[in-house]
């Protein structure tokens, strides 16, 4: 008959702990895989509903997106859809939160996408925060000038409009600065466009006045 010694007992307990840890780890990995597959399915459904019905399917879209967690690779698209819905609903402050999250969650090829900057800047202007909007439009101007290669497949497919021309961005900055009575800064924006030869008729008019 085998004799149980303190050493044998210690080894048995250690083996049981190792087995438990391995089985738990495998179960956790399986749960994560399942959650990611479910997130993909829910996002696919939400995206299809958004493309086909927009706000007519808002409740169903939100229900699907509730199942797309932040650790999912589809959370970027989730934030864009949620932000667009809040924007349409007249909730710019809430839309800004989602748009900002989308910027943080953007995958490598879409990081720094000018259309995201344009969206956030426009939302800030709608929310009445022209100071931040001007700052965002300046960042947008830099991004457009940089002409960095960006693949905006997800943002474009979900309905985010492309960023406007450089002239339009300068004009928007000038208008916002004028609203804040920052006449000098507005004039500088217009002058910069004139000096660089990118001023359209509107900019020339604003610069002259």
Provide structural commentary.
With 209 residues, the protein is an all-alpha fold. The protein is built from ten helices and no strands. Helix 1 packs antiparallel against helix 2 (58-65), helix 3 (75-88) packs antiparallel against helix 4 and helix 6 runs antiparallel to helix 8. The relative contact order is 0.07.
Distance between the termini: 105 Å
Radius of gyration based on Cα positions: 26 Å
Residues in helices, as a percent range: over 70%
What about the largest sheet?
Answer: none
Share in β-strands: under 5%
On the 0 to 100 scale, the average pLDDT is 84
Low-confidence stretches: none
Number of helices: 10
What class would the helix/strand composition place it in? mainly alpha
What's the multimeric state? single chain
What letter string, H or E per element, gives the SSE order?
A: HHHHHHHHHH
Any idea what the shape is? elongated
The number of E-state strands comes to 0
What's this entry about, in short?
The protein has 209 residues and is mostly helical. The chain is 74% helix and 0% strand.
Topology readout:
Layout lengths: L5 H48 L4 H8 L9 H14 L3 H14 L8 H13 L3 H17 L6 H5 L8 H14 L3 H13 L5 H8 L1
Tag the structure with descriptive keywords.
mainly alpha; 209 residues
């Amino acid at each position: 008959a085998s004799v149980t010694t303190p050493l044998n007992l210690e080894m048995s307990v250690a083996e049981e702990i190792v087995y438990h840890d391995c089985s738990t780890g495998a179960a956790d990995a399986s749960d994560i895989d399942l959650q990611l597959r479910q997130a993909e399915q829910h996002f696919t459904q939400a995206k299809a509903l958004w493309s086909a019905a927009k706000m007519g399917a808002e409740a169903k879209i939100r229900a699907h997106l509730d199942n797309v967690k932040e650790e999912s690779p589809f959370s970027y698209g989730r934030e864009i859809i949620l932000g667009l819905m809040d924007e349409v609903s007249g909730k710019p402050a809430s839309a800004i939160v989602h748009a900002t999250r989308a910027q943080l969650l953007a995958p490598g090829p879409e990081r720094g996408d000018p259309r995201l900057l344009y969206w956030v800047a426009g939302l800030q202007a709608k929310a009445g925060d022209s100071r931040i909007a001007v700052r965002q439009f300046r960042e947008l101007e830099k991004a457009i000038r940089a002409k960095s290669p960006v693949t905006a497949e997800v943002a474009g497919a979900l309905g985010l409009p492309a960023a406007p021309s450089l002239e339009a961005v300068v004009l928007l900055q000038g208008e916002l600065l004028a609203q804040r009575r920052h006449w000098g800064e507005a004039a500088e924006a217009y002058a910069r466009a004139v000096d660089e030869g990118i001023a359209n008729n509107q900019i020339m008019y604003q610069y002259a006045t």
